[in-house]
Amino acid sequence: MERILATYRITAPESESRARAQALAVEQSVEMPLSAITDEAVLRDVVATVESISPQAKGFDVVLGIAPSTTGREASQLMNMIFGNCSMQPEVELIDVELPDGFAKSFPGPRYGVEGIRTVTGVKGRALTCTALKPQGSPIEYLARLARTFTLAGIDVIKDDHGIANQAIHPFEQRVVAVQKAVSDANRETGGNTIYAPTFSGGGLSLREQARVANDHGVKMALVAPMLVGIPAFVELQVDLAIPVMAHPAFAGATRMAPPVVLGKLFRLFGADATIFPNYGGRFGYSRETCLEITRVAREPSHGMRPALPVPAGGMTVDRVEEMVGDYGADTMLLIGGGLLSAREKLLEKTREFVRKVSL
Amino acid sequence: MERILATYRITAPESESRARAQALAVEQSVEMPLSAITDEAVLRDVVATVESISPQAKGFDVVLGIAPSTTGREASQLMNMIFGNCSMQPEVELIDVELPDGFAKSFPGPRYGVEGIRTVTGVKGRALTCTALKPQGSPIEYLARLARTFTLAGIDVIKDDHGIANQAIHPFEQRVVAVQKAVSDANRETGGNTIYAPTFSGGGLSLREQARVANDHGVKMALVAPMLVGIPAFVELQVDLAIPVMAHPAFAGATRMAPPVVLGKLFRLFGADATIFPNYGGRFGYSRETCLEITRVAREPSHGMRPALPVPAGGMTVDRVEEMVGDYGADTMLLIGGGLLSAREKLLEKTREFVRKVSL
User: Cys-Cys crosslink for B274: which of A68, A184, B259, B309, Cβ 3.0 to 4.6 Å?
Assistant: First the structure.
């Protein structure tokens, strides 16, 4: 099988580029001096290859060919092979990954993707709207009331704040039952189709129990931060969960892996049906170019996988709806949380304004 | 209960320090405008507090007081609260975390620690020795033969290379059974006490199955990369595993979380009995000061937790044994992999030299 092509940007003098590239190939595969390897098959089939070196403004880019067999076709080991040890080399950044044909089949990919989310929410031909239940630490009744207001306003998806996990004041089961009921009741009143995406958190045992609760109570979407629960747990969760999964980027920015690779390409490979990213001009420093690239990578044709739904967020406001739809098009879900909640007693009206603007 | 004190270094003009600190406190707790919060209890008990701001060479340090209740006393949510969203703000680095009294009890901490590893290996009063089976992709018989040689030489701990996971050529179960047998057989011949630490990888289901195999076959230590398997999975694994756990730093490096916090403090909190770190002067760029701080934090008295055994590694050689023991003292395990394997047909002699030097 062809190699996995991983591209690294190395900030170092170009005179070192050949030696650096070779050292990185060793580090990311056999991690020992090649002179001490006597097995020809290992040298040929296991050691990563240097496919190309190209000069850049500050340093150079190196493309390594990583043998698919070294990943064991499992998520934690794939991450290990593409960015395990070199994560500890501050001058090395992972800027792209290309998978060989057939490799993606070992991973779930989006099981629902853009079309699946459109089916669940009943939204055709326009961008979707999303908001968040906040703040964490609020009584469950408050969160349920908030969810009712958002549902009455006709929001498509209500997610938990990513800070709302399984805390004592709003444990997963009690909260999910109450909020899902509030949403379902309000849907019946309006004839609407709003869905609720609670935050899943913790280890495999907790995730499985949360999946059971969600399945039992008609929850239609899950919010999960792959880097917090762990990427293999994110993959494994999908076995128990017959609903779309929205990936949250918390803890994922910490890594010197380019955001389009992580939030776009890898989260999609691992099964994200929708992927939240911090939009430019909000509380985070991503550029417009980076954000456009995340959305492009999340949706582009790739190994027969379904496209994932990009979800710009992070300090967005209703004023920016038109701009975001202009940037990202209709196959997008706009997430506005604090920007709606700031309306306080006018929350219903403000949310309706959001919904209306997206429908135009 | 008192707050969790998290210290962040922010690279920004000092004139912005007050506003930046307040924004970070909001980001890492309620993530919404405070003006939209009407619940006094949330404002008082949930919103993170700015405890101090102190100017630094390039920017300033901010200490936030994070409410323990927001973590749900669970590992993924703790990481979320201390570095979830701000991981996406490149100007913010997490440089320390102090836990309030009693908080650590929610996490395993080292269950064996330095003393437990000394008991298992029978090593008293000197540093321990460790090496690695490499390269990945080698037939199991080769790895078992290598393990036999290391055991005959009297190494204390033989770990799998962190790249050896559950791949087709050396699946976990077959490999572990063969290598453990080779080690046990050689121990019987020498009267020695060498132990084997295989790499655990994958999701919760895989980890549990691997724990079963390890328990069934008398394996006495586990090697796990918490950031690859996911921190909650790392914690959960310990329920199934009655042997010491050695943490590997793969995928944990250069995360804009200071290495002493991650590899020393947090991995210990989450249960690492031993923690591998890239020693200075090897293939990674950590300074001597950073390495000394990792070892200090791993072993210092902290919330009644057992000390964790620091394991310097990453391109070390037998020449540096004296220096490493001088730096880190006897409660240390020296890990030399490639530096031994480079001896090729003189592997037994070279390994004996390593063992002898540490025993002096």
Answer: B309
